[in-house]
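This part of the workshop introduces the protein records we will be handling. An example says more than a description, so a record of this kind follows:
>
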Amino acid sequence: MRIAMMGSGGVGGYFGGRMAAVGYDVTFIARGKHLQAIREHGLKIASRDMGDVIVNPAKASDRPEEVGPVDYVIVAVKLWDTQATGKAILPMLGPETTVLSLQNGVEGDSILADIIGTQRLIGGVAFIASSIGEPGVIKHIGTMQRVVIGEHSGGSSLRVEALREALSKAGVTAEISDAIERTIWEKFVFLVGLSAVTTLLRTPLGPVREDPESRALLLSVMRETVSVARARSVALPEDFAETRLEFADGLPADMTSSMHHDLEAGNPLELDWLSGAVTRFGREAGIPTPANQMVSEALEQCAKRRS
């Protein structure tokens, strides 16, 4: 099985690294200092709870056209790069190549489908707290390292089963969802909340959930996201935000979001596809989303002052 990780940061680097470490043929598509470090020293996963892994040598490139056709392309780039990524992976697509997006948000697959076709895509979500700690090193916090995949039409298939098996052999918690669209939205609810509060307040999850006001903001952001989902015929329970808050209480106190990391690093933000998307969906459905709108407006101002 040949696998290309299109994006080798916290998500792509972690799951690709785990699979490469147990013998799968994985090529990491990366760039800049991260790519250079992987080429020179391999890829390291530094996980305080799940154990470190070093893949050395590691196959890495910044030119997908030189990789050639693979069995699976796993897309793990930022949402603002989805359009360009869809075009970039075309040389790696053979007649039977399957594409899985583990991006944030709920719109990445539709963007990719317009470029590569819906028949190549399977749906999926990744649950993990990881980021690039330094070039060539993926830092993983906690024990959560879970991937859920499934056919967009519902259920499983041979290609879904094969990828789940590869992830499981790599020690990843890998599951198949009978309703992957709902699963994607389930993650989206929590992700929007986590990204909103940790980025706006520039603090990890622990202080957020311990302070009554920031905890209330987290719940409001998630409640609005659930309301929008239900208006779009996604079968989430009315109290789903409350159950996600309980879930947050069991996570590591130093957990944060990739958008928080991006803000601190001076990178572009996925805001338009997270709280921005909730605001947009709410406007289309006639549902007020004041908490998400406030987050969007405040972080947009942060981005403008920084640029």
Notes: Residues 194 and 201 are 11 Å apart (CA to CA). The domain at 182-306 is CATH 1.10.1040.10 (N-(1-d-carboxylethyl)-l-norvaline Dehydrogenase; domain 2). The chain has a mean pLDDT of 96. The longest strand covers residues 121-134.
